[in-house]
Amino acid sequence: MYVPCSVTDIRKLCCSGPVITCLLALNLIGTFIMILLLMEVRKVHNPLSSQDKLRRLYEERQFLPVFENVQSHNRLFPENGTDTDIFQEQEPEKVLDYIPPVPKMSDSDVVPSLTKEIMEQYLELPDKNYTDTIVVFTPMRNSAEHLATYETQLAKLSYPHNLISLYFGEDSSDDRTFIIAKMLAKRLTTNHGFKRSKAFHFNITGGVHGVWGDIHERTMQFARRKHLAKSRNLLLHRGLKDEKWVLWIDCDISQLPIDLIQQLLFANKDVVSPCCLYRYKNFKRNYDKNIWRETDVSLEDQKHMSRDQLVLEGYGPTSRIYLPDLRAEGRVVPIDGVGGCALLVRADCHRKGLVFPEDVYEHVIETEGLAKMAKKMGYSVYGMPFVEVFH
Ligand SMILES: Nc1nc2c(ncn2[C@@H]2O[C@H](COP(=O)(O)OP(=O)(O)O)[C@@H](O)[C@H]2O)c(=O)[nH]1
Ligand SMILES: [Mg+2]
Predict the structure, then answer these.
(1) Mind listing the pLDDT tens digit for each residue in 91-135?
(2) What are the pocket residues of ligand 1 if the criterion is a CB atom closer than 6 Å to any ligand atom?
(3) CATH (domain of 187)
């Protein structure tokens, strides 16, 4: 057998045809293996598409442990909410092509956007001639800065304006809210074709004053909500005539769907609420946490409370399910608590005694109290999770 023994021999061998071919082949195989390995590493680090990631996140949320401690309702969190920012890393413009399942209880403020196709499917309206009369009631205080936007949003409503009356109830303002509200009422009838409109000034005291942070301090909520309930009940007393429906709208909303009234009428329920959201860092988030459904856990918690204990949402984790989280159940879903951002009530319910409780009523007050009272009176209370009002 030939064995290379000198440097010249080895050089000769290396330059021979078969060996070069062999080396080249080995090189190619090596490169191929490296590419495969690199692809595998990428898969490990980025195993799912963003849609899949969100889907998994939601599936995991279904199995979150329950909060057993009643006090957790009232625990103050740094940002005053259950804001977990779980979607922070996602591209804001990404929309889900499926409806997330209903969680056992709400644990995030983020309301994912859904595709246009899904939204349209749940917002389709029948072609019909509307004849029901509506009265819009709006409490207001120190809201001068909001009334221009409010006028624009009201004017854009596509429901026949000649079927809508609007009444404003102002008190305790130290800005020009009442004067501007009176001018607004005039314009709504003369310029925008609404049926009737008037601003009332109520001589009541006891409200909570200060900047947003002060009035939303947890300890202030009983006084604040009690006063708001009084303002709403006064409006009802002064403004309700022969209309078929009462629509409550807060004057500091930033955007109403133009078909808000048609959407809420579609539900054909005694009390019906849309979602009330806000936009933050390009995400939609839940604003009005008074719109919720009880769960076994939240109801069990209440059994161990004293009669006058007030449960407040938005001050820590919740054991209830907020309306935006109920979308997987469909277009019109049963709920137990409502807010005042926008709320439709069959006027006869108010005529038969449905009001905003001014004291703790089944552990809630004001709008949430109205929902509880409505249920006690045998009325239907529902939410429309695809209808979005923006605060
Ligand atoms: N009449 C009256 N309206 C009020 C008072 N405080 C707030 N409002 C109005 O009630 C609605 C809801 O109040 P707001 O402070 O926006 O509540 P939030 O959005 O839940 O923080 C808005 O239209 C306010 O202008 C008050 O003391 N008296
Ligand atoms: Mg508000």
Answers:
(1) 555 789 999 999 999 998 999 999 999 999 999 999 999 999 999
(2) 138-141, 143, 169-172, 207, 227-228, 231, 250-252, 340
(3) 3.90.550.10
